[in-house]
Amino acid sequence: MDGLPYEILHLIIGHPSCKYLVLEVYNDAINKALFQKSWQQTCLVLLPKTGDLTSLSNWRPISLINTDCKVFTRIMNSRIMSISSKLITRFQSGFMHNRFIGDHGFACRLIMEDASKSTSISESLGVMLDQTKAYDRIHPEYLCKVLNRFGFPNKFIKYIHDLFFGNSIFVNVNGSLSDSIQQLQGLRQGDSISPILKI
Predict the structure, then answer these.
(1) What pTM, to 2 d.p., does this model score?
(2) Among candidates 165, 106, 159, 113, which has minimal Cα distance to 138?
(3) Which regions form coiled coils (predicted)?
C-alpha cells in the first residue's frame, strides 16, 4: 500500500539520524501495542489458480501489507518460532524449522505398504483431511484463547488481535482499489506470521 521497497526501508534504518526513530516505532509496537494506522490496512490481490477463472474459488487471495509492517510481523514470527518446537507437536512439520514435511509422506507410504500386506485388508482405512479456506476460517476469539492457553502474554495477544482483526482491506481489481472492507476474521495469506498462527 505504501509502495516502499525494502531497499529504501533498509537505507532509512541504516541512516544514523533515522535508525533510532525506526527503533522507537518498533519498540512502541512491541511494548505498548501502538501501531501505525497504515499497519491495519491490507491490499488484497487475487492470483489465478487453475480451472474456471469465472469462479471466485479458483483465485487465491494474497494480502499485501506495508513494508514496515512486514518487518514487524517478521520480528514477531521469529519470536514465536524460537519457542514453537516446545509448543507444537513433533508431528507437525509444515512451516516448522528443522522439520521435513516429506517425512510424513514417507511414513504414510510405509503404513500403506504394511496395510496392503495385511491379511485383513478390509479392516484397513486411510483418511486424508484438507481444510479449505484454512486461513480465512481463523476466528479472533478462538485465536486469542489458543495463544492464551499456550501462555503467551496478554500484550502479545492484543497486538496479534489488533494487527489481524478489524483491519481495512482494499481489493485491487485491475489496478484500482475497492472501497474498504473490514476484516472480521481470518489471517492474511502472504504474511510471514500467518502460518505459525494457523498451526
Answers:
(1) 0.71
(2) 165
(3) none
Q: Which residue has the higher pLDDT, 121 or 199?
A: 199
- Give SS3 for 140: helix
Residues 84-109: pLDDT tens digits? 777 777 777 666 677 777 887 888 88
Predicted pLDDT at 173: 86
Grid coordinates representing 147? 495463544
DSSP codes of every residue in the chain: -----HHHHHHHHHSTTTHHHHHHHHHHHHHH----GGGGEEEEEEEE-SS-TTSGGGEEEEEE--HHHHHHHHHHHHHHHHHHHHHS-TT--TT-TT--THHHHHHHHHHHHHHHHSS-GGG--------TTTTTT--HHHHHHHHHHTT--HHHHHHHHHHHSSEEEEEEETTEE---EEE-S---TT-TTHHHHH-
